[in-house]
Amino acid sequence: MAEGEPAWVPKVPVKVDREVMELVRNGGATEQGMNAGEFFLALATCNTIVPLIIDGPDPKKKVIDYQGESPDEQALVSAAAAYGFVLVERSSGHIVIDVLGQKQRFDVLGLHEFDSDRKRMSVIIGCPDKTIKLFVKGADSSMFGIIDKTLNPDVVQATEKHLHSYSSVGLRTLVIGVRELSQSEFQEWQMAYEKASTALLGRGNLLRSVAANIERNMRLLGASGVEDKLQDGVPEAIEKLREAGIKVWVLTGDKQETAISIGYSCKLLTRDMTQIVINSNSRESCRKSLDDAISMVNKLRSLSTDSQSRVPLALIIDGNSLVYIFDTDREEKLFEVAIACDVVLCCRVAPLQKAGIVDLIKKRTSDMTLAIGDGANDVSMIQMADVGIGISGQEGRQAVMASDFAMGQFRFLVPLLLVHGHWNYQRMSYMILYNFYRNATFVFVLFWYVLYTGYTLSTAINEWSSVLYSVVYTSAPTVIVAILDKDLSRRTLLKYPQLYGAGQREESYNLRLFIFIMVDSVW
């Protein structure tokens, strides 16, 4: 660190690996050190984080709080800062990074933000040594298609192994690459970008095309893994929902191994489940996998003689397979497999695919659908479902703004459904039947009176009594039941989730009860 320079400390502490730190400090000495330096420089530059400098308890140390839409980006920028690449300033045209104690200015020449189609973001940086570099980070499924594997095959092979190990323990992974641009390549990109950004029609598609043209022949720098911790009470909440007879489907953008690992950690998947995996790279293989899945479901059904001997099933399907299924109108077969499974886990799905899956269920069943999410990529799914719930957290408030209900944590869904859902079902059922009963009784009194008085103009009830009948005489039960009635206590409903099935079986309001109430009112 240079004389008189302040020490920059990220607000979120990061544990530093000494071997990696030594490699970064001796950066120019070895090729491995240079790659490590470029890796952390990519983490510090390829983001939309805004740094806020806070005075710490020590005047010689400045604490930096990184603000951004994505907690993953905050974690990666904090990691880069811990290894000496500290993002200290951001403006519309440049960023300032403290590189191992020396402030350096990098010009932001272009930025392609992350989108669900490309599944990556890129930034073009003008470095202090006058070179122009393109940094790209994104999902491995997207990145390995644009990486030149002949440049450093050993790094590619090692990164693939690390990605598999990261995702197997439930980490959210990203792949980082770099390419140095010539002046002519940059000018060509700049002209195409300006033309696309000013287009009146199809601007989004044109910008994606410009990004795809520049994001190619990348050199792999490495991969990152970010732990996405489950909130408190998530496994217990999912277990209670399943005991209540509610089918739980998980739709995530994470890769398959990460999604499966999270499924086990939240008790959605169990070791005794038979997994049906559909992960296809072509229409023909997807069709075959779907047919095989239907055959397996039918075979297991025939072997199961009763509910006790039934084998639990879990369907695991990725976004590419969903594209082929929706394009070839094979949704009916997918629905047939999915509805027979106890758990459905969709990985690497785009926001519109999430909404498409919810729509698939709504069109083919009379069951109510509920979608819950915490990020902007969950908005379309939340809006498509019958009931949408947004979780307010680090991912922003887009999901909350688009939802019917908002809550702070996922575990609050259990009392919302099992307690308040049960109480409200009982109250609404009673109120509907009671209102039909009291109105039918009132009307039939007038009807019988007219018959026995020879259709005279006189009425059995005077005008004041007619008005007060609904407003005063019979209003108390409606108000009291709607507010205070609790057929079972909160503790009982939470202890026995199966009681939620009363609403699913329509025990308190159905055609038989309605006919009985009407016959009783006539009598």
Q: How large is the count of helical segments?
A: 21
Radius of gyration: 31 Å
Could you report the average pLDDT, rounded to the nearest whole number? Answer: 86
Terminal CA distance = 93 Å
Helix content: 40-55%
- Uncertain runs are 1-6
Family: Belongs to the cation transport ATPase (P-type) (TC 3.A.3) family. Type IV subfamily.
Keywords: ATP-binding, Magnesium, Membrane, Metal-binding, Nucleotide-binding, Translocase, Transmembrane, Transmembrane helix
Subcellular location: Membrane
Binding site for Mg(2+): 374, 378
Keywords for this entry:
523 residues; alpha/beta; Calcium-transporting ATPase, cytoplasmic domain N; 7-stranded antiparallel sheet; 4-stranded parallel sheet; metal-binding; ATP hydrolysis activity; ATPase-coupled intramembrane lipid transporter activity; nucleotide-binding; P_typ_ATPase
Would you mind describing this structure in some detail?
The chain has helices at residues 18-25, 31-45, 71-82, 140-143, 153-168, 183-197, 203-214, 234-243, 256-265, 283-303, 319-327, 331-340, 351-364, 379-384, 398-401, 413-452, 463-473, 475-484, 490-495, 501-504, 511-522, and strands spanning 7-10, 50-55, 61-67, 85-90, 94-99, 102-115, 120-126, 132-138, 171-181, 219-227, 248-251, 274-278, 313-318, 343-347, 370-373, 387-391, 405-407. It is of the alpha/beta class. It folds into 3 domains: 7-226, Calcium-transporting ATPase, cytoplasmic domain N (3-Layer(aba) Sandwich), CATH 3.40.1110; 234-411, HAD superfamily/HAD-like (Rossmann fold); 416-522, no CATH class. The protein has a 7-stranded antiparallel beta sheet, with helices on both faces. Strands 11-14-13-12 form a 4-stranded parallel beta sheet, sandwiched between helices. The longest helix is centred in the C-terminal third of the chain and has 40 residues, at 413-452. It is elongated and about 110 Å long. Its main location: membrane. Mg(2+) binds at residues 374, 378. Belongs to the cation transport ATPase (P-type) (TC 3.A.3) family. Type IV subfamily. One of its GO terms (cellular component) is plasma membrane.
